């Protein structure tokens, strides 16, 4: 950030009594005024007593002066527009003191340049945010932390394991703000307005719960709050220069986090806060959910669903996701649409508990959007309570994963169709295959091997088509009666009666296990 003479005037405002700045010149250094000097550099500010000013006006176009008032300012210097001058009170500062203060002012500019260089050097590092915060801590000296837009910890930095600030230590341990903090913030309207509209830090002073003041700044990209950085006034008093460093950190952190597809992005909305809270908190507090819903003005129907949308990491992923998210936010009026971990997540509600929360026309339109933009979506089962949101969110993601494992064609997949596959995979993580597969199926596979038949294939097709003989025989390209004969043959070999629901479930699970482990 370039230094100007007005910046210096602000920096020295405790010591100044008057100023005349007709041209806010950029200044790069300071120098004591030497007697007889005729030519002045426009990017240098000259320090002197008024009594040391030359008797005749210099020839230079722009002259910047920092003077101590040991006498009245000469009239020509007051009228001439080519002069920028800052007048300091001789009772408040001496000439050596003024020189030291001005050098400190320019030292900040050098420090800021060095700080930016260090930040740039780690920007591409895998642990960039952690390293950038450590660099910032060396310059600022106060405890720092970064939280994401759902108020979950990202990284923190201070020397001591124990910090004499209970709210910070409690947050570090539980990864959630205290109810006292939430209550105070919810009634601090000045803070809320600042967090929505301002790009400068806000100093929070809550002596009821904090021992120290807190300075907080939002980290933004593409009109979104993606994180917040906080400084605790613990080791050193807050300064304007440290505020400037904090804003530089927010700029670089925004660049880094914006390119991290696993990082949360939040629109400035109470509605988004609901979704982010229930998905990022391992054990959501039902009372907090109720308060967030009330704050956002939401009214859900009986059943809830999650839709998880991805583009399979295409090169233009982020830009496309922002565009599609905006499109779907308008398409799903009344739902919650959010970019999470670089993907689109939609929360929908319904009066009915069905496989799809979308009716036929809307479902077809949604499929057209997915197909046209090469997107893929997984849909959870219906659930009743937002405290179960994380589980339903995983279901929507699993619907996509399981569809890929089965090489399914299409763009929209429902977890409802893959419950048994998920159950089988989960079982096999801790148990051998032999305990899941019906013994009679081993006899059927052996019969196929010896006689060159395809009874296992016919059985799978029959079950995949909901025991519909006509559909299954058409898919197998065999006669209806041929399939009936094969089903009877299967019963004779295995002893399994496929007219009983419990046997059908056991056989279905067995076929899935065999498919997974083949």
UniProtKB/TrEMBL annotation:
Coiled coil ranges: none
InterPro entries recorded: CdaR-like_regulators, PucR_C-HTH_dom, PucR_C-HTH_sf
Regions that span the bilayer: none
Residue span(s) of domain PucR C-terminal helix-turn-helix: 455-512
Entry superkingdom: Bacteria
Cited Pfam families: HTH_30
Name of the protein: Helix-turn-helix domain-containing protein
Organism of this sequence: Clostridium boliviensis
